[in-house]
Amino acid sequence: MRAPEGIAPAEEAAAAAASARRRRLLDRIWTHGWLILGVLVFALPIWITLVGSTHDAATIGRGEVPLLPGPHAAENYATAWTQGGGRFRAAGAAAMLWNSALMALLIAAGKIAISLLSAYAVVFFSFPGRMAFFWMIFITLMLPVEVRIIPTFQVMVDLSLINTMAGLVVPLVASATATLLFRQFFLTIPDEYVEAAKMDGAGPLRFFRDVVVPLSVTNIAALFVILFIYGWNQYLWPLLVVNDRSLETIVVGLSKMIGTGDAQNEWNTIMATAVMAMLPPVAVVVLMQRWFVRGLTETEK
Amino acid sequence: MATLELVGVRKSFGSVQVLHGIDLSVADGEMVVIVGASGCGKSTLLRIVAGLETPTEGRVLIDGRDVTPLEPADRDIAMVFQNYALYPHMSVFDNMAYGLKIRRVPRAEIRRRVQETAELLGISSLLDRRPRQLSGGQRQRVAMGRAIVREPRLFLFDEPLSNLDAKLRVQMRAEIRRLQKRLGVTSLFVTHDQTEAMTLGDRLVVMHQGRAAQIATPMEVWARPADTYVAGFIGSPAMNFLDATLAEEGRAAALAAGPVLRFADGPRPGPEGRRIVVGVRPEHVHAAPGDEGGLPLAIELAEPLGSETVLHGRLPGGESFTARLPGAAAPQAGAVLPLRLPADTLHIFDAETGLRLDPRA
Q1: Closest residue in chain A to residue B81, using alpha carbons only
Q2: CATH topology (fold) of B4-226
Q3: What distance lies between CA A152 and its chain's CA centroid?
Q4: Does B151 touch chain A (CB under 8 A)?
Q5: Inter-CA distances, A243 with A153, A157, A164, Å
Q6: In Å, how far are B116, B175, B219, B308 from B121, measured between CA atoms?
Q7: Assigned superfamily of B237-350
Q8: What angle do CA A277, A283, A285 make, to 5 degrees?
Q9: Contact state of A196 with B130 under an 8 Å Cβ cutoff
């Protein structure tokens, strides 16, 4: 229908604009609804853990799931920090956190150091069998710890590294993934840098130290986050190689706190420990995030 | 300050030979420009001098000393790269100082030399910046500074101007030439741009398919090109080539297009009817006066440039031909213009080998 000149088109336009606005609003409600639901699904368990760590054992033992914090936070955390939680009272969270942090740090640092060097060798040097070595490294990607766990364990026994920090860390240090990532990054470093360095008289190690590593800083930061969390979350290998309670890691310790039978679990201290176990990886992500965001925004190429 | 000598330098990559024996000697303080189309082996030659490639055969001598087996760092040469190759994570100062630092030059000395060089190049205010905060021209200067600060015996330039815009290129070209003269450092400069080559070089090496087609001063290369490749490569617009045969006992060329042109400078060797190529530069062509006849050029495209007009067209034989006439008032496309080819501007080449034919002595 054709409206009369002058007034109606404006009204029509206004109506169209209003309906468009309404549609946009609906769209927004719809998307936000889904997003909020997603956040709830992810955040609720963490919230329950957090709340659970502030009640006494009996409250949770009754089967109630409180959604508001209780009054027992201080004592729960103190107990967990010094003695451990649940059924596992041999090592406090303090000691286990220290072990986990040390292990994760050593694994991340070791993985980065070794893969930087091996990627450097594979990319910048031509030696016989270079691609063969690269593929050998690459193939180990397909052999996770679980697959080679028995021979690895035997090697650790032979080297008497059972129940040592070295035994915890060393088998996890080699990393094909990180080598692969660094290789891909090194391939983007222009040949002219290598040649300029040669003209400047820089030897291979000098070039590595003065040019390759500084250029890789953002990659190193990003990998550090991933590898630290990988190290922190290690479960099977620490469970096998360490019987000494002074070397217990928090992830293994946490699982030992939970009984499987009819025994009453002290969920309050377990949850307090769980909260503490979550914090270091979160801290690493939050701290390092600034690094690699900076790295992403100022690409130096 | 040094001399550079290349003796029979050959290079093959696998079964592909890219350099077929280059001999060159560069005098102390001389600037030699290696020019050629891409793939002619000019960069490979430069990289062999730098020590970044090893020649398959032949020797490189600096100051008479054989440096062929030496590492780049031990040759005491500096190179300016096409993409400048400035380390992105270092300040301008550190970029320039890096080579000196590695050579364990004392700190105070490094500081003094970098500052002096920066002043020379007018980049003193940029020393704290990172390369990515610099413009193309500034990066170019820093790359030069990095080479100069080392006080090397030899400068190598690998197409350093090709990443700059046209205006900056002209400016930097003049600056490089001025600096090189002032510092008096023996230099090799690689480029594919003939204007750069003509303006920068004391001498040119025109490379073609892994061989040095001609080694001579820019003016000589322009005035007496050694073969049809050099003749066509140097000069813009490119030289015209016309098929012809030797006539009048070697005193003239009978053009395939018709007219017979007498040489100004004496007979060329060879039997009557020998196949030759007559080269004439577009700027040497005149419009023939009304009654003279001349070579009729059917104009297909006229490019008026203000001070001159470039005409593209065809001769009766179908050969394409370019003429550059002074002034803007030239005939338009579609017209036929009779041309005169002055005898003293003709270049005569052998049709088979492409080599220049000079008059019999």
Answers
A1: A192
A2: Rossmann fold (3.40.50)
A3: 24
A4: no
A5: 13, 13, 10
A6: 9, 9, 30, 37
A7: Nucleic acid-binding proteins (2.40.50.140)
A8: 110
A9: no
Q: B210: Cβ–Cβ under 8 A, 6 or more apart, which residues?
A: B17, B18, B19, B20, B40, B41
What single letter denotes the amino acid at residue B224?
Answer: R
For A151-181, letters b (16+ CB in 10 Å) and e give: ebbeebeeeebbebeebbbbbbbebbbbbbb
Distance from CA of B90 to the nearest CA of A (A): 9
DSSP character at residue B227: B
| A298: its two tokens | 């100022």
What is the residue whose two structure tokens read 């679990």?
Answer: A265
Over residues A47-70, the pLDDT tens digits come to: 988 998 888 888 877 777 778 888
CA distance A97 to A103: 10
φ/ψ (deg, to 5) at A23: -65, -40
Residues 6+ positions from B332 with CB-CB distance below 8 Å: B299, B302
Q: Contact B103/A215, CB-based, under 8 Å?
A: no
List of residues 6+ apart from B67 with CB closer than 8 A: B51, B60, B61, B74, B75
> What are the distances in angstroms from CA B350 to CA A164, B68, B227, B245, B274?
85, 38, 9, 10, 8
DSSP codes of every residue in A104-118: HHHHHHHHHHHHHHH
Taking the domains of chain B in order of start, what are their residue ranges? 4-226, 237-350
Q: Does the distance separating the beta carbons of A199 and B99 come in below 8 Å?
A: yes
pTM as predicted: 0.78
> Among the CATH numbers 3.40.50.10170, 1.10.3720.10, 3.30.9.10, 3.40.50.1010, which is that of A78-297?
1.10.3720.10
Q: What are the extents of the domains in chain A?
A: 78-297
pLDDT (tens digit, 0 to 9) for every residue of chain B, 361 residues total? 689 999 999 999 989 999 999 999 999 999 999 999 988 999 999 999 999 999 999 999 999 999 999 999 899 999 999 888 999 999 999 999 999 999 999 999 999 999 999 998 889 999 999 999 999 889 999 999 999 999 999 999 999 998 888 888 898 899 899 999 999 999 999 999 999 999 999 999 999 999 999 999 999 999 999 999 999 999 888 999 999 999 888 888 888 877 888 888 888 888 888 899 999 999 999 888 766 667 888 999 988 888 888 999 998 888 899 999 887 666 778 888 888 888 889 999 999 999 999 887 6
- Residue partners of A69: CB distance under 8 A and separation at least 6: A50, A51, A54
| Cα angle B312, B223, B206; round to 5 | 90
Closest C-alpha to B314, from B327, B326, B301, B303: B301
Residues of A in contact with B71 (CB under 8 A): 198
Note the pLDDT tens digit of each residue in B31-64: 999 999 988 999 999 999 999 999 999 999 999 9
